[in-house]
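Prompt: I keep going back and forth on a fold encoding question. Comparing notes only helps if you start from a blank page. Show me how you would write down a chain together with its backbone fold. Please set it down just below, with no commentary around it:
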Amino acid sequence: MANFTPKVFGSRATRGGAGSLVAGALAVGTLGAPAAAEGARPVRPEVRRVMEQAVAEGGVPGMLVEIREGHQRRFGAAGVADTATGRARQPQERYRIGSTTKTFTATVILQLAAERRLGLDDTVERWLPGLVRGNGNDGRKITIRHLLSMTSGLFNYSLDPAMLTRYYSPAFMRHRFDRYTPEQLVKIAMGHAPDYAPGMDWAYSNTGYILAGMIIERVTGSSYAEQVDQRIIRPLRLTGTYVPGNETQLRGPHARHYSTHSVPQADAPVHDVTQMSASTSWAAGGMVSTTGDLTRFFQALLRGWLLPPAQQRQMFATAATPQGKWIPDTTYGLGVSSIKLPCGTTVWGMGGAINGSFSFTYGTRDGRHMMAQNVNGDWNNPIDTFTKALDAEFCTKA
C-alpha cells in the first residue's frame, strides 16, 4: 500500500534464510558494469558506490538510478531485477511508484483549479456530499487544500489494524489480490475519529488523496486514470507510466518486486509480490512508471510546464513536517516535498513505497537536475540509501 512511512517496513540482514536469494543472484556477477540506457552515460563513481553498497550490504535485490541534467542523461544499475534468473536491472523497467502517485493527483487537481472548475478552498462536502461523516469527521470543515497538504486530520485508512494485518504482514500473500473501491477505503477511515481538527496539525494520510481522486472524477465526469493520461502522461510522452486500476500484473518490461512483509528477523522469508492489486492505493499510490518517465515528469513540473504560475506557487508553498511524523529534514506542500541533504543542499520531488518497491525522485528546484531511484525490495529502510545517493550526486563536486 502507498503508506510512505518507512517505519512500517521491517528490516533484515543479507546472510542466511532470506538473504540466500540475493546472495545467489550476486554470485552471477551482477555487480559488474551496469546496463546502459540508450544515449546515457554512467552515473558518477560516488553514486555507483552507494548502489553497490545497497545490494552487497543492505541486501536489496537491485537498484536503479537515472539522472537527467540539462540534455544529458546518466544511468546506473546494481543487483538484479529477478533473483531467480539473475537478470540485470534495465533502464526501461516499470515499477510500482507508491506515493509518488500523489504528485500526479495533486497536479491534476491544480490544473482543474486553474481552469476554475474547482477551488482549493472548496469543501469535501461540496463535491462528495455525505461521504465524510461520522466519528467526529465532517466534510463540511475539510477543504481540498487540506486533503493535498496532509492537514485534513482524517485518519489514514492504511493504518487501520485490519489493513495493517492484511498488507504489512505475511497475511498479505492471501490478500494481495483483494480489490477495494475508493468508497470502501474512505469508509474504513470514517470508522476512526480524526487525528486532529482540520488545519491544526500535519500527519501523513492516504485518505486525503483517495478523496482527491474521487473529486477529480466528480468534477470531470471521467475516470481518474483518464484524467492523468490526458493531462500528464500523453502530453509528456511518458510511455512507461500508467494507472493500473484493477490490473494485477505489470505491463511490459519490469523488475520483480520482493517483500519480507515487515517481518524484522534477519532470516525472514522473501516473497515475490510483483502481482498484486493496487486498488488499495489508487490515487494515493497505485501508479506504475519508470526512472526515465519520472525524471521527465518532475523536470516538467518543477520548471512550470504543467501548471500556471499561481498554481505552481501554491503547490510549492511547503511547510516543515513535524519531527517524528515523517522523513527528517523535510517539508511538504501540495503533493510535493523537499529534503535537506546532509551537506545542506535542498532537493525537491516525491518518494513512494508500496509492497516490494521503494522509489525516490528528487532534484533542484529549477528542475534542470533530477535523479530518480528505485529498489525492488521493501526492507532495511531504502530511504537511507536514497539519501546517500542524493548526497553523492548533488553534494559531490564533479
